[in-house]
């Protein structure tokens, strides 16, 4: 690895680290999984989010995100799909919190599956065009000359993923200590209400973003 690439990765790590610890949609998804489903599902959601970030990193490096940025129709389409997805998840949680639903054993097993948690995390990230917009705006500043854009984009996204995984791990292990309290029916309803409100808020914000 050349000195220019190493310097670019270290410099990007400072920026990505600050972005990572700012509470946002990814944090809400991982925390909710950790508090209501368990560590395995929370880590699955975290890996899903990181997989989505790698896809966005490759897209930004190869110019796909440029198309989304340049094409109002493409960006709007992805933004609307993402907003609908977030609203669907958020409203579902709000309805469950309002009704105080207790899920059956079969549904609980499905919901607790790591595959579903992974897909939820990946979908949340992939359907958020703001991730692609962030990468396409910041990657050019950390692209050394004579370096494959695809490789460098994946390396930068990998740095972001590594920092996110460390942060998510801290959140998950801290949340695990409080899981018994959060598993209580009344507290879980409150958690679903808060998380659902956050997701709906992000969905509305994404839908209204021009």
UniProtKB/TrEMBL annotation:
Annotated keywords: Cell membrane, Membrane, Transmembrane, Transmembrane helix
Transmembrane annotation, as ranges: 6-31, 43-66, 72-94, 158-178
Keyword Transmembrane: yes
Membrane topology: Multi-pass membrane protein
Domain of life: Bacteria
Keyword Cell membrane recorded: yes
Subcellular localization: Cell membrane
InterPro entries the UniProt entry points to: LeuE-type
PANTHER family given in the database record: ARGININE EXPORTER PROTEIN ARGO, ARGININE EXPORTER PROTEIN ARGO-RELATED
Protein name per UniProt: LysE family translocator
